[in-house]
Amino acid sequence: MSDLFHDKNISPMLLHEVKEPFDDKEYIYELKLDGIRCIAYLGKEVVLQNKRFKDVTEIYPELSDMCKCVKKNTVLDGELVVLTDGKPDFYALQKRSLMGDKFRIQLAARKNPVQFAAYDILYYDGKDLTDKPLMERKAILSEKVSEGNGLSISRYIEEKGIAFFELAKEQDLEGIVAKRKDGLYHIGKRTSDWIKIKVMQDEDLLICGFQPDEDGMPKDLILGYYNDKGELRCRGKVYLGVSKEERAVILKFAKKNTVKRPWFEKYKNAVWLKPELMGTAHYMHETVSGGMRQPVWKGMREDK
After folding, report:
1. Which residues contact 6 (CB under 8 A, 6 or more apart)?
2. FRET partner for 244 with CA separation of 20 to 30 A, picked from 58, 94, 139, 300?
3. Catalytic residues
4. CA distance 89 to 55
């Protein structure tokens, strides 16, 4: 018989996206945190898994005591975040996620500690909770899980989705998530029970090439995506937000993975790559020509 805690193969529930916020008594509203989605297995020790089932526990040693927040085996769905000036800082988190050296990880854990923000509980003390309504799961989460040791519990409001979205917009936050009160937890599925409304748009894109600077280092990243027909299309280029660490990763990849034919003719003096590396761009909206307005690079995706 399968057991969510011991099998450790949970794919997080996915979110449907809409453009405009709404008010509805049947939904609660939470902040959309700008971090990395994670399933936390809390027992005698902590196991953290990203969306691709990769064990990322050793990257975040500051979360090793989260198991002290529960008395029984527990599975939580939540977000890994780094806070800078009280707001989620995806760039700081992305630097942490790319680290492999244990000494550097320990230093970073003290300087930029990661927190786990829990917004759902899927399992407690041998019981699968995914077939219970959201508000019942929220009550169990508040009762059975204590905050501390890097773990916090996501707060929510009821009914006032439009005002909450405007507040998120004023504070330059990622957006909000609306969740149906009677909704069940659908492992690995996307339903309208959970709806995200973003202040700005994020898109996962392929790094198709780069335009180098005077020293040959990647400067402007040229980004693309595959359309419904499987054709590679251009989304534009971005330079803001690309870290030194990511430039080094891209340059190392380029040494063995360049292609001679340009993917997109409009970009000159570019180094073209096999479209295998992926990252996230953050921008206002899509332009008429299919590009990005005011794009900022959020970081490479190790989980895709």
Report:
1. none
2. 58
3. 32
4. 22
